[in-house]
Amino acid sequence: MFPLLSLNEWWQFLGTAEQVFWVIALMFSAFFVIMFGLSLLGLGTDSDVDMDHGSPHDFHLDKDFSAFSIRSIIAFFTFFGWTGVYLLSQESSVWSTVLISTLSGATAMFVVAYMIYKFAQMEKSGTVDVLNALEQQGEVYLSIPQNHEGKGKIHIVIDGSLHEYDAETKGQSLITGSQVRVVEILENEVLLVEPVILELEK
Fold first, then answer.
1. DSSP characters for 128-165?
2. What is the pTM of this model?
3. What DSSP designation does 187 have?
4. What does the pLDDT look like over 19-63, one tens digit per residue?
5. Count of other CB atoms within 10 angstroms of residue 77
6. What are 148's strand-pairing partners?
7. Helix, coil or strand: residue 69
8. Is the dihedral of CA 82, 85, 89, 91 positive or negative?
9. Residue 28 and residue 74 in contact, taking contact as beta carbons nearer than 8 Å
C-alpha cells in the first residue's frame, strides 16, 4: 500500500500542469456550488456577458441566443479543470490534455447556455402576455442602436412584475438609463420603442 500523503506533500508531488488544472477545477467548482445555492434562494443570475452592449457582432448561435453567461463560463472552466485533472492522472500529454479539456469545457458551456436560453424563453412565453407591454414605459438596460441597426435590452414592468426584453428603435440610438415607451411588438417578441420626452413643469 502507498503511504498516506499530507495535503502539502500531495501538492508538491503534482507537476505544474496538474497543479494548474486542480486550481481551476476546485475554484470553479466552488463558484458552481455558490451559484447553485443562490439559485435555490432565488438570487441566481443568468445575465449574458454582453461584450459590446448589443452590437450586431455578438457571438450568437441563433437569434437572441448568447453563448456567454456567468453560468456557462463557470461550466466551461469547471469541466475544463476536471477533465484536465483526469487526463493528466492517466498520463496524457499536456497539449492533448489542454485540447480535450477545452473541447469538454466548450461542450458544457454551450449545453448550459442553451438550457438557460430555453428556460428563459419558456418563462417569458408562459407567464406574461407581451401585448400588455404596448404603450407602457420602460428603461433601457443595454443601449439600443439607431434605425433598427441592432438590438438592445429594456426593463419593463408588465402585470406587476419586472421583465427584460430585446428592443429596437427607428430613431436615434438610446443609451442605458433612457426612459422609453413601447410602440409596437415586432417578431420574436422584440419591442419597438421610442424615447419618452419628459416635459418640464413651468
1. --GGGGTT-EEEEEE-B-STTSS-EEEEEEETTEEEEE
2. 0.48
3. G
4. 899 999 999 999 888 877 776 665 554 544 444 444 443 434 444
5. 20
6. none
7. strand
8. positive
9. yes
